[in-house]
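Table S5 (text form). Sequence records supplied for joint modeling of the two-component complex.
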Amino acid sequence: MAERIGFIGLGIMGMPMARNLMKAGYELVVHNRSQAAVDELVSEGAIPAASPSAIALQTTVIITMLPDSPDVRDVVLGEDGLIDSMDAGSLLIDMSTISPVTTLEVHQALAAKGVHALDAPVSGGDKGAIAGTLSIMVGGDATDFERAKPIFEVLGKTIVHVGAAGAGQTVKACNQIVVALTFEAVSEALVLGSKAGVDPEKIVQVLSGGLAGNKVLELRGASMLARNFQPGFRIKLHRKDLGIALDTGKSYDVALPVTALVSQMFASMVAHGEGDLDHSALLTHLEELANHQVGQSE
Amino acid sequence: MAERIGFIGLGIMGMPMARNLMKAGYELVVHNRSQAAVDELVSEGAIPAASPSAIALQTTVIITMLPDSPDVRDVVLGEDGLIDSMDAGSLLIDMSTISPVTTLEVHQALAAKGVHALDAPVSGGDKGAIAGTLSIMVGGDATDFERAKPIFEVLGKTIVHVGAAGAGQTVKACNQIVVALTFEAVSEALVLGSKAGVDPEKIVQVLSGGLAGNKVLELRGASMLARNFQPGFRIKLHRKDLGIALDTGKSYDVALPVTALVSQMFASMVAHGEGDLDHSALLTHLEELANHQVGQSE
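The corresponding structure-token record, covering 596 residues in total, follows.
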């Protein structure tokens, strides 16, 4: 009989991850805030559940993939939350990107009932979720990590146990810093070079070959030049993630001057109604500053 | 008979580039401000020349690889400069990283004498120079680019004709923006994650696998964690390059907020006597701000 897993949060990331688990032979019991996603997955063979608590009655391993810290707190600790029904010895794998502080709060509340927990945020975007090639950064006990590993191997390619509870979220915050600042770097370069008269495709081509090379150029360079800013990963979520990084920095007295500056740029974009664009649209903020559109007809 | 090339500027980049050309069968006539480098290369078979002008009497293709705009202006337009002796139809390939403004000045002065010129700055550092795997971004006429291509193919791997005179320098400025901001991104991530208690090697490992992946992590991550900040490419030169980027931005009304901020960090490091460290030492500036050393014993 197929192993049964609970899955809560069927968004742009959670939906393809759940599908990959079903394709790999797992039986899924699913719950989502909006019912349409549940119905879609049920039509593909998943079992619906009316609440997180109802999932916990049917499964011993539950994955959560939710937007933000309050969502995870609600689903685990709130009314009809997982904590009401999870048995001692069962395992929560939270793959959301949330605050390390909330992660520790959740870990501790569950531990008091003998429930195990891993924080296992991912990187790689919707493309990585669909392809099953996510990077997964896991915090928690080594035995729990080994238990969850077959599941991670369905969802991702780079799977690393990075430390104790919360370490996964810390590394994810580091990841989001580097991704955001790389978009900023590429955007400043493209606006400068393009306004100075160079074909931006040449810039992408040359920079990819040297020490400036990065995955943003490789995976998003073409779509940025094509001015395709459909998410992908939304500005408002990346802004949330930089907020987590800055809060973590505040907790540990770490100054993050450029993270702070780029976070302010994201905030301005949200204020201008651009929060639902892909994070690569940071390019348009730099274009706005320079009153110049990259790749426009001369 | 071997084709003869002039080569001026035998520094950390120029020396291995000259050696690769000699290995490929070119006969080199060389000049350098400090004589020791000339003597070294002469012992390997190169022909010494007492001045740039003396090189121009013996060759029709000349490469310059010099530290900054004034050096190129001096070597080409100054006393005993190339312009005194270069014949019409001969070709100057300036592979230095200098201001696009100086590049245009040099191109125009040479063009008035019928001398052809390419700006062909490189990326890839001393490692790329030694391995012959540089990225070369070339500005100038297409026929001159084709003429120089066999030489570029000895020195580099990614060789792109990016546009008219000056375009090579513009793209190099873009490259230096992305490299500097990537060092900043990686440094903020490493200091945050490490001070929050995560093994920095795990951070490098995980970030390399996703959208945060970049060549800085791949090629310099290990040396940064080993605290090896020997150049490589010096802070003071990268600061010079960001100055070129900011000047170019000023010429074209392009705001480069993060380039400006990181340039100020480099300036502070130069003020603290750290200008001769490798640019990866930007990490130490962020460590200083957070009063925390990445990878120190707990």
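Note: Chain A touches chain B through 75 residues (CB under 8 Å).
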